[in-house]
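Lab notebook, design round three. We kept the backbone fixed and only want residue identities now. Task for the bench partner: fill in a sequence for the structure below.
Input structure tokens:
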């Protein structure tokens, strides 16, 4: 029988959260995504990575369920796994995991089970990056425009070039991490993540590239996003169709924006952003086809950063969402109903602008009138219908 060397790396999978914001009636890690729990999907990624000790920190009273998930994911690596009981805070839960480390372990990764779709490649990348006394975290650039607010007032902009969104697993050399935890627990200070705790002890923390798939499942919308990512992966080659409609009345400020173009001298459409009903219908068609909700969920009035934004902003962000969900765009066909503007002379320009914003996808736009019928026929506004075909990405 071949005896495998004892791993010198361990990963602590923190799964002790209650999942209050998920509102699923169970500890977050045990909520199902498809036929498997959040924890099981997280552990599938862990056990697909290089062999390491795996410590699952479970909610008190749910150790048996966590053990079953661990054994199901581990396969022939079951001897590498162990379940321990979590504490009342994340910090105490990680401390419980640290207390279960094998003596040979020199590198420790701390991973949130809620980042259930984190790939094994990201886990291995963090392991490789831990050298010396520095910690390592995967990050993504911050792409949204950020504002500093005071109550209901926006008081200034935040320079996002200096910011990054942290993910897990976060990796550290064992002994300095244990010492940093001892200091934090003695002080009673709660840190937002392990990197912050480690840096507070005077250690450097470096970063590597993260992944869009390693998002944290916190809300029902996050859970739905994870489900659609997995459903796309399980049905390769089957295209889907999405349909979107949008209606805007004339009466906005400034000139008209429609189909990604400015129309000087034409009355503007009213709306939360620029009122571009063509772009908004396309967004709804793409989001609907990918099963990602609708424009109100991602760009509505609860997202003030999109107030006044033009088509390219909406479409580029929607392309990111659709791509992250495992889809590529086949084509998009749009028709708008209205008496103005005269569209035919700028059709090629509009189609090119919309296509560019969607990464080169084929977009066709047509226009028609309603012979004086309805609100668009009376010149009160514009109605748009868009149909999008999405193809699972290989």
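Proposed sequence:
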């Amino acid at each position: 029988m071949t005896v495998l060397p004892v791993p010198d790396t361990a990963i602590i999978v923190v799964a002790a959260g209650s999942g209050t914001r998920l509102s699923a009636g169970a500890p977050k890690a045990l909520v199902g995504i498809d036929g498997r729990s959040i924890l099981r999907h997280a552990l599938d990624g862990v056990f697909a990575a290089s062999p390491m000790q795996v410590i699952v920190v479970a909610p008190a009273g749910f150790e048996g369920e966590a053990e079953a998930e661990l054994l199901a994911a581990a396969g022939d690596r079951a001897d590498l796994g162990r379940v321990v009981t979590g504490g009342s805070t994340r910090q105490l839960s990680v401390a419980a995991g640290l207390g279960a480390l094998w003596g040979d372990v020199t590198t420790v990764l701390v991973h949130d089970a809620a980042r259930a779709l984190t790939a094994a490649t990201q886990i291995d990348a963090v392991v490789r990056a831990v050298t010396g006394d520095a910690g390592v975290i995967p990050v993504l650039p911050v792409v949204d425009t950020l504002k500093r607010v005071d109550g209901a007032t926006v008081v200034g902009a935040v320079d996002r070039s200096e910011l990054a969104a942290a993910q897990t697993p976060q990796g550290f050399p064992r002994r300095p991490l244990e010492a940093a935890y001892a200091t934090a627990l003695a002080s009673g200070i709660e840190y937002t993540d392990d990197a912050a705790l480690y840096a507070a002890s005077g250690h450097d923390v470096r970063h590597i590239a993260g992944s869009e798939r390693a998002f944290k499942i916190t809300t029902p919308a996050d859970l739905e996003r994870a489900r659609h990512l997995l459903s796309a992966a399980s049905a390769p080659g089957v295209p889907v169709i999405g349909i979107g409609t949008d209606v805007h009345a004339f009466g906005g400020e400034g000139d008209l924006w429609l189909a990604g173009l400015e129309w000087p001298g034409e009355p503007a459409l009213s709306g939360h952003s620029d009122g571009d009903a063509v772009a908004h219908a396309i967004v709804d068609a793409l989001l609907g086809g990918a099963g990602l909700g609708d424009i109100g969920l991602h760009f509505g009035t609860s997202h003030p950063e999109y107030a006044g934004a033009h088509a390219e902003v909406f479409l580029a962000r929607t392309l990111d969402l659709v791509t992250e969900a495992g889809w590529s765009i086949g084509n998009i066909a749009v028709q708008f109903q209205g008496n103005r503007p005269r569209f035919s002379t700028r059709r090629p320009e509009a189609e090119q602008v919309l296509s560019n914003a969607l990464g080169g996808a084929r977009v066709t736009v047509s226009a028609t009138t309603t012979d004086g019928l309805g609100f668009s026929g009376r010149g009160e506004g514009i109605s748009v219908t868009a149909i999008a075909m999405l193809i699972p990405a290989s």
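Keep this in mind before ordering anything: The chain has a mean pLDDT of 89.
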